[in-house]
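Exercise: predict the fold of this chain.
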Amino acid sequence: MELIFSNFQTFLNAVQSITEEKLAQAKKILETHGKDIENISDIFVNDNGELFDLLPDGTLVRVNLYIATKEIDRYALNTIQSEDLYKYHIYQCSTISTMFNSGRKHRYKLNTREDGTFFYNFHDYNGKVLGIKDNQKLDICKNCLKKFLGKSPLSDYDVAHFNLKKFHQQNSGFFDFDTSSIEKGEDAKPNVYHRKWTQISNQIKTGMKRVDNGQFGR
């Protein structure tokens, strides 16, 4: 029994090491170049419409959503301003829903940055890359800002002085997910878990049964 436990513990340690490595990689992507998103269903949204991403260890992290590429004239690259570019989002606003539902093939990304700058790609009308910026300043979506401030209309001052870092800090402890549909029991599939939760759960159970039957550790 001790041999089986020892080997299984080694197995668990290896799994944990892999998970930690994937977690570090996932966090780095969100903090730098951003995570590519193709479907709005890949984003977790709480009752207040705020946006989250699921990390490899099962935790949720608050994110910003934005379009990471812009088609421009090559002579405009050095004069481009934030007001000339797509806005970033902190809520599932009507703008996001409309653009995803229309099937527009922009390159969406999620990130966790708090300084209002984003990884950005500029290309010409033939698709040739003109430039890449690691810290392109973007403005917040006005629909998102209206929801956050709870007022309309907005002024240019409101947009210019929105503090993304303060928004993340103020809301860091308030996920407010609807838990009414969370099931009970060992087969429970919380509505904030990965869409492949059943498959993952079954794989874990199969592995545990093999351990119980003494198929590991020999």
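Check your answer against the key: Residues 2-31 form the longest helix (30 residues).
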